[in-house]
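Homework help board

Subject: predicted structure for assignment chain

Our instructor gave us this sequence and asked us to write out the predicted structure in token form, then describe one feature. I got the tokens but I'm not sure how to describe them. Can anyone check?
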Amino acid sequence: MIFYMFLKDLLFPKFCLGCGFLGAYICTNCKKKLSYINRDSCLYCGKASLYGLTHPGCKREKGVDGFMSIFYYNNLLKAIIKSIKYRFATDVWKELCLVIEPDKLSKIQIYKELIPGDFFLEPLPLHAAKLRSRGFNQAKIIALFFNRFLCLSISQYLLRKKDTLSQAQMKNNKDRYLNILRAFEASAKEVTGNNFILVDDVVTTGSTVKEAARALKKSGAKSVHVLTLAKG
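My token output:
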């Protein structure tokens, strides 16, 4: 095992995603560049909100009830998430897990106190074709990490029935909306009356998680909150 690790490091050396330093994907100096979110905000209006709960005036009938994220989506986080998502770099994810400050994750435990009843962690699903191509769903990997602190059931009641283009490729909000429209469906039998925490890697405009929340609410979900690694 030691020889294998030595050989792996020799053939595929680690370079810091922030500065190119040899020896780690996130070096000691760049670790300080990770920018934690200290004030949560409403997903709809962007203004400060306790625990990221959606303001009463911003609520939608089939919308998101609250939103929390751990990091701001700065250049370092972009490089990390891109490596995890597109280069199959699970070692990068392992390093990120090790450098996240545990006290920055304590806030997510509020989910257990928000609404009576059980919550399910629902990783945002990939389309079947994309899952086959990539081989894994990064949202599920992140959900497993968050679940170390939440100890909830992880569900897979959402189905991504539409193979959408990357939202980052869309030129404007209207294109993003049309791209993701009706992309998800959920089974009413399993969803009805339950509370869900949607998990994804990053939220920017929020179009994707809003559409996923709509599908869950349409199938009878009691509440839908969103939890992501980063916020753009």
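Reply (TA_rk): Your tokens look well-formed. For the description, you could write something like this. The first strand starts at residue 66 and ends at 72. That's the kind of observation they're looking for.
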